[in-house]
Amino acid sequence: MDPETQKRLEIVRRQYFQLVEPSQLRWSAGSVLKAPSVQSWIYDNLFNSDKISSLPPDRYQLRVLKFLTALVERAIDDPEEDEISDELMSKLSSLLSSNLPSESASAQQKAYVTYSYSLQSANQDDHHDRAVTLLESRSVISSAGTTGLRTWEAALVLGEFLSSKEGQDMVQGKNVLELGAGTGILSILCAKYLRVSHVVATDGDEAVVDAIKTNIFLNGLDKDDSSLPIISTAALRWGSPVNRPSFEEDYGMPVPDVLLGADVTYDKSVIPRLVSSLSWFFELNPFLQVIICATVRNEQTVETFQNACNRNRFLLEDVDFAPMPEELQTGPFYPTGTRIRIWRITRTQPSPDSYSF
Known about the structure:
GO terms for molecular function: S-adenosylmethionine-dependent methyltransferase activity. The chain has 357 residues and is of the alpha/beta class. Helix content is 39%, strand content 16%. The protein has helices at residues 3-17, 30-33, 36-47, 58-75, 86-96, 103-108, 153-163, 165-171, 185-193, 206-218, 244-251, 271-284, 299-311; strands spanning 110-117, 130-137, 175-179, 198-203, 230-235, 258-262, 289-295, 314-318, 340-347. Strand 3 (175-179), helix 9 (185-193) and strand 4 (198-203) form a beta-alpha-beta unit.
């Protein structure tokens, strides 16, 4: 198999395990896909349940296989020479004969989703995946009424930034706390690949915190191994006081050096409590750095957040990091139609002249 075909198939594999819509998978031309070696690779790396432990839902596999076989069939000129492989046809027949849930029922069920990142480093071979596998809900709002059981675009973009050299420098060797962690993707990425000292994934919903524990297990970070970074979870309701003497006992970590938050400014009503929590953490550590990534759905909400930060003497700086254009993404994959911003927030230190004696 030539290197270009291998590269394109690898991108499709990453899209597939992230459950990207089948019509958006970047397949090679049908003339390439009909090759037996290519079909064998596709089966082994996308559908072979004997080799792959975290396969996508059966209904998604069926949709992808239907799309793929249609591409191959259109490219076949001579049925005596070209055909769809027995392995792929057997898999398709098996899925077609299964009693699969409806699309709406399937959307409410949790599924394995794998997100791939490339880390910028002169000492690492970026050909290999830095993958985070999550068990998450694909519906916008789960049956439990929370949005915290799926991964949102802002978390994917912030993960990309943290994987850059600048982002790694911000968290490497640091104690990190994530606010509104949702599926826990950022905390797991930090613990698994970004060499943090300790990371705590927090959320205000106890059910979401329990789900994060499952995702920590899926990524092999629950082992009692001193060589692994420490990752833990905790419930944290925004606006509640954070007490220095009991912080380490409550959260299992020293006072954080870095706070992370993705899509935590989604609603004007939550901003006062969010900013109140930031104030408490700045009281614990005046030199704290806060990195917030937000999908800009409403400019008024952004203005409300900025004004609240200004009133609390927070310095809000835009981080110069542009999301990757969709056609150039190699993982993770996300839409770029809505603006996404990353802010670095620090606390303005009073000048000596402001002190009264």
